[in-house]
Amino acid sequence: MSQTEPAPATVSILPPLESTSAPSPALMAGQNLRTALGGLLAHKLRSALTGLGIVVGVAALLLVLQIGAISQQYVTAEYDHVGANSVWISLAIQPGTSKADAVSHSPLTAEDVLAVQKLPHVRVASPDAMAPFPASAGGRGGTLAVDGVYPAIQSLQNLSVAKGVFFTEQDEASGAAVAVIGSRFAQTRFPDVDPLGQELRIGSVNFRVVGVLAATSSVPDDPTDDSVYVPFSTFQQRLGRINPPVVMVQVDDHANVAAVIAAINQTLDQRHHIAAGQPRDFVVMDNSAGADDNVQMLQTMRLVMSLIGFVALLVGGFGVGSTMFMAVRQRTREIGVRVAVGARQSDILRQFLTEGAALSVIGGVVGLIVGTAAIFAFYVAYRNALLGHDFRDAVQAHMLPSPAILAIAIAVPIVIGMVFSYLPARRAATMDPVRALRDE
Amino acid sequence: MTVNTENDPLLLIRLQGLTKDYAVGPTAVHALAGIDLEVRAGEMVAITGASGSGKSTLLSLIGCLDRPSAGRYWLEGKLVNSLSREQLARIRNREIGFVFQTFNLLPQVSALDNVMLPLVYAGLTGQRGRQRALQALDSVGLARRARHKPSQLSGGEQQRVAIARSVVTGPRIILADEPTGNLDSRASVEVMAILQALNDQGITVVVITHGADIASFCSRVITLRNGQMVGDAASDHARRADQVLVEGPKRREPPEEECDEPD
Hints:
The complex is a heterodimer of chains A (440) and B (263).
Chain A: H1 25-42, H2 44-82, E1 86-91, H3 99-105, H4 110-117, E2 122-137, E3 140-149, H5 153-156, E4 161-164, H6 169-174, E5 178-181, H7 183-189, E6 199-202, E7 205-213, E8 228-231, H8 232-238, E9 246-251, H9 257-271, E10 282-286, H10 287-330, H11 332-340, H12 345-382, H13 389-397, H14 403-429, H15 433-438
Helix pairs in contact in A: 1-12, 2-10, 2-12, 2-13, 2-14, 10-12, 10-14, 12-14
Chain B: E1 11-24, E2 27-40, E3 44-48, H1 55-62, E4 70-75, E5 78-79, H2 85-94, E6 96-99, H3 111-122, H4 126-139, H5 155-167, E7 173-177, H6 185-200, E8 204-209, H7 212-215, E9 220-225, E10 228-234, H8 241-247
Parallel strand pairs in B: 3-8, 3-9, 6-7, 7-8
Antiparallel strand pairs in B: 1-2, 1-4, 4-5, 9-10
Helix pairs in contact in B: 3-4, 3-5, 4-5, 5-6, 6-8
């Protein structure tokens, strides 16, 4: 402390203030913000710890919202790959009958597929018969899931060949013993040799590998990468399996899906001699229903996760509330002084509401940064891992929160901060100033 | 005294049968039991009395920090009893300046910001507010301490900052509750010198004090006992604090019985 300043010899007084009206709300708000920040800075550790609750809450909320957005984009993209234009025909299993009965009594035949193929708006149709077989390849045995399909499956399932060729219509017509294998299957069974031309024994038939598919890379464990595709006719005739359990149909345009479904129903009713009113022995489904179901499920999941995020924020809000109670308790005297120099109840109330909201908003902004950093770190760490490009694209697209998510992540903590500091602020505002001034 | 309250512009404070009860458990304690008092503009009044005599309660009522249980209070001819909270807040802001024993400065902000505090609630901030607050600080000789925090100031300086705060809105009345209670003798006299100087300029000053020494700087001394006025003495020979500062105190003991710890 420096030398005490001497008291003045004379004192001049200030004229009374001109009769200005009460301070404008904007001016008071600015003043309150200054006071709030000062109050928070005066107790850095306490403010930081309380803010941490909000940081965690907002980060959690942000992550939940972002994960929701990412998975929605991802699932939508996945369905786009399978094609929103796809229609499936599968066997209907009547109550009381076994699957085997259903298969033997009401077959979906190659002729059925042909009939469907001829319907208007149908681009391609292919049976997809999958069954396990004892197999050996590259000197190793085991059980293998084999798909009997038409070459058309390529466009139906978005398959592309990385090496060699896909088997042809001619292979299909002649029942050739050729196979196209998935990328991972090729890697695990033929690690050291070029799989093309290698032999693959399925059941008692030796197949020649003519093509290797490109990695689908859309889902980490996509079964396509492990599959073995053989011509449907070969599958039926030489492996001894008949009747495709599923027929996949590609419609030329999404708008025609309903019409094609109706046409398939009509054609197959005729072919299977099903009179009106009788139960069908087949079911026609389209992809969009599945996509809708999935999107709906995702939305439910998002809702539940958002609730969890809100609960996390709520917990942060309790922290703000108790800190504000502490602040009011600690600053009782200050409140008394402010009232003594002319603060109205509403001024005191707003001051502490502002402080609570400021604490929350600062926590919220830090939470946004933390949450965004977490997504960014996740992206950087895993972008080269086994994630599919759809997933990577989805994460990349949502690296920064969208304006809507940003608005939620800022508005919610403001509201929470105000709500939870209301009671402490009210206590401050209604305090008896005489007692407040004597507070020890 | 019988003065026409409505028409006497110099009659600043008029109390009639002013009573304040506090409920302590089932019984009521009379902190003030019917005070009749008139203070004219420009007076310098000391209110003395033992602890619990009701002097602080009286000051809170005059300062519009509290409302009486019974009785009436006119301030500048306005009946205070009927005013709203907002109006009372405005009176505290514009008409009255408070000075406390413990200074009651906000510890986290500068002297200047402390002095600006009443201006904030008057809607005067920014450069004009700062200017006015600086003037007020200058008038108590502390313009050079404007940026200092209270903890960087001596007790006497802190109380002078508090006085600057009390006058910054240009009030007519200063209410000082034991303003020298935490100060050493020299600082006490300095503070009284400033209060006297303000009084010289026409500001009405009401000082609560235990000490006869401090009361002797006032031209009127009111004595309370058990919530009642038991003395009201005017004196034409109030000591001048500025003279005491020049001559030095005649006695070496502290000016107040309560304050025997030197700072």
